[in-house]
Amino acid sequence: MVEPIKVGRFIAQNRKNLNLTQKELAEKLGVTDRAVSKWENGRSIPDVGIIESLCKELNISIGEFFAGEKIQEKEYKKETEKMLLASLDEKQLYGVQAVIYILEFVSLELLMLPFQLSEKWPSINRINIIYWILAAVVFFCMCYLDKKMPERRLRNSNKWIQGIEAAVGFLWVVFPIASKERMNIFQGMSIGESIAIGLEIIIGFIIVVGVAVIQSKTRKEEWEEENNSKKSD
């Protein structure tokens, strides 16, 4: 994510390198010197519509502006992509994480579907091979997206998303989707045994979801502490 303090220091440094005062830079951009002061102190960042003009006046690239530092030419494309990804806000990052979890479950279900639909070990036929190839493709897309998107710790810190992911994962294990026997889990049991198994499932569900929620809160606290530490530096 964009670091206002780092960007502000970079603006101030390049302004001074050009021997411009805050007032002179402000006049070139059609803003007040107070606005420039706020940028340089990290209290705000320039509006989107003014960033391009600011970069031209300071002789820097847009990628360097978002990075808050000079970028070597050979690293420019890589760093620009990184900064654009990092500019996503929390809601967008949480949305991406939800998509990643959906892809994860889809890949697992495609992988297990031949086993769940077959009474015995699934045969190597064209349909099953297609399922497994699709599972590999979806899994690769999930891994690629997870690797490329920034702020993994933040993405994993939403208690609702983590709780739902844990709940779906638990139920997927206990009641496999498309399993022919998923509705017969209590078949052949006495009432007492069925109640005992049901209580075990409920307790297990609560524990799994609870742990996921607690972990999400811990990750959010760690991310905030790390982020505040970077700002103070």
Automatic annotation (TrEMBL):
The chain crosses the membrane at residues 93-117, 129-145, 157-175, 195-214. Keywords: DNA-binding, Membrane, Transmembrane, Transmembrane helix. Residues 11-65 form the HTH cro/C1-type domain. The keyword Electron transport does not apply. Gene3D superfamilies: lambda repressor-like DNA-binding domains. Pfam families: HTH_3. InterPro entries: Cro/C1-type_HTH, Lambda_DNA-bd_dom_sf. One of its GO terms (molecular function) is DNA binding. This is HTH_XRE. It comes from Anaerobutyricum hallii.
